[in-house]
């Protein structure tokens, strides 16, 4: 093909379609200027433009081209001017000598072109920033949620311990109102004090019987149980502690409907008592 210098199809108001096949996209082509601006051309910019190794000016402005600028254009060493303003192009500018010193005016009013050119946004800045912000957000969520979970667990544990401690005094109070005459679990001092209180220090008002070996008193304990307390008379036989305990052991084992149940006993330096069920 011969040298054609300039091919200008700009400002054709009724041009809506142009078959660029009329241009021989071959390396030997010697187009210097190709201007198809101010038309209504649509579609993507042909990658074949990169074969025009002699082309110096390419004007595609004021059309409706979409997509990205072909990377093949970036390898055109002869190209000094590329005007793609007023289109709907997007994506990154190709790499190449042309785009290092390009004018921002060549790329104005497009859909979303980006690149390392003053006036255009950096292509990698937004994704990296969003990814960075997303990572920071996740770290903040973890940094807040983990201590909160630990604090909640500690709070729950503390509440359980507090409730447990509050129940223990209640259990102790219940224990204090237990049957003080339980044969297997009783406090001798508690029994003696309770009986002394219940009988007003063995007042005659509470006597319900008397015999050779002792006097029987009626006593109502703190828990409301009514029992008979037999206070033994001091005798030489009762001064034998070992004998007294042996008799108590025998009475504790006896179970007969005609014999009252022995709840317990109290051996004191002043008194010896048998605590019996009141029939």
Automatic annotation (TrEMBL):
- Which molecular-function annotations from GO does this UniProt entry contain? ATP binding; protein serine/threonine kinase activity
Q: Which residues form the Protein kinase domain?
A: 202-279
Ranges annotated as spanning the membrane: 139-163
Q: Which reaction does it catalyse?
A: L-threonyl-[protein] + ATP = O-phospho-L-threonyl-[protein] + ADP + H(+); L-seryl-[protein] + ATP = O-phospho-L-seryl-[protein] + ADP + H(+)
**Which top EC class is named for this enzyme in its record?**
transferase
Q: Name one GO cellular component term.
A: plasma membrane
Signal peptide, first to last residue = none
Tell me the keywords, alphabetical order. ATP-binding, Glycoprotein, Kinase, Leucine-rich repeat, Membrane, Nucleotide-binding, Phosphoprotein, Receptor, Repeat, Serine/threonine-protein kinase, Signal, Transferase, Transmembrane, Transmembrane helix
Main location as per UniProt: membrane
Q: Give the bilayer topology.
A: Single-pass membrane protein; Single-pass type I membrane protein
Query: What are the binding positions for ATP in this chain?
Result: 231
Q: Give the domain of life.
A: Eukaryota
What Pfam families does the entry give?
LRR_8, PK_Tyr_Ser-Thr
Q: Does the keyword Phosphoprotein apply?
A: yes
Annotated compartments = Cell membrane; Membrane
Q: What is its EC number?
A: 2.7.11.1
Specify the protein name: non-specific serine/threonine protein kinase
Q: Which organism is it from?
A: Dichanthelium oligosanthes
Q: What is the lineage of its organism?
A: Eukaryota, Viridiplantae, Streptophyta, Embryophyta, Tracheophyta
């Amino acid at each position: 093909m011969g040298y054609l210098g300039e091919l200008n199809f700009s400002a054709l108001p009724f041009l809506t379609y142009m078959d660029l096949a009329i241009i021989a996209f071959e390396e030997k082509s010697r187009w210097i200027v190709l201007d198809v601006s101010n038309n209504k051309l649509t579609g993507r910019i042909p990658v074949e433009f990169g074969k025009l190794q002699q082309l110096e000016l390419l004007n595609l402005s004021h059309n409706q081209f979409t997509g990205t600028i072909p990377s093949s254009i970036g390898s055109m060493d002869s190209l000094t001017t590329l005007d793609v303003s007023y289109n709907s192009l997007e994506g990154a500018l190709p790499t190449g000598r042309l785009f290092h010193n390009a004018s921002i005016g060549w790329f104005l009013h497009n859909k979303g072109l980006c690149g390392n050119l003053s006036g255009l946004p950096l292509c990698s800045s937004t994704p990296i920033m969003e990814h960075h912000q997303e990572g920071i957000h996740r770290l903040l969520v973890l940094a807040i949620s983990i201590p909160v979970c630990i604090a909640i667990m500690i709070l729950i544990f503390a509440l359980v311990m507090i409730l447990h401690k509050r129940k223990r005094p209640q259990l102790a109070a219940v224990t204090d109102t237990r049957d003080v005459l339980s044969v297997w679990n009783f406090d001798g001092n508690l029994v003696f004090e309770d009986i002394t209180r219940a009988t007003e220090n063995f007042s005659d008002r509470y006597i319900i019987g008397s015999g050779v070996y002792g006097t029987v008193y009626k006593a109502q304990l703190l828990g409301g149980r009514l029992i008979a307390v037999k206070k033994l008379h001091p005798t030489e036989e009762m001064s034998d502690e070992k004998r007294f305990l042996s008799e108590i052991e025998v009475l504790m084992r006896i179970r007969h409907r005609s014999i009252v149940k022995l709840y317990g006993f109290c051996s004191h330096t002043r008194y010896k008592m048998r605590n019996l069920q009141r029939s």
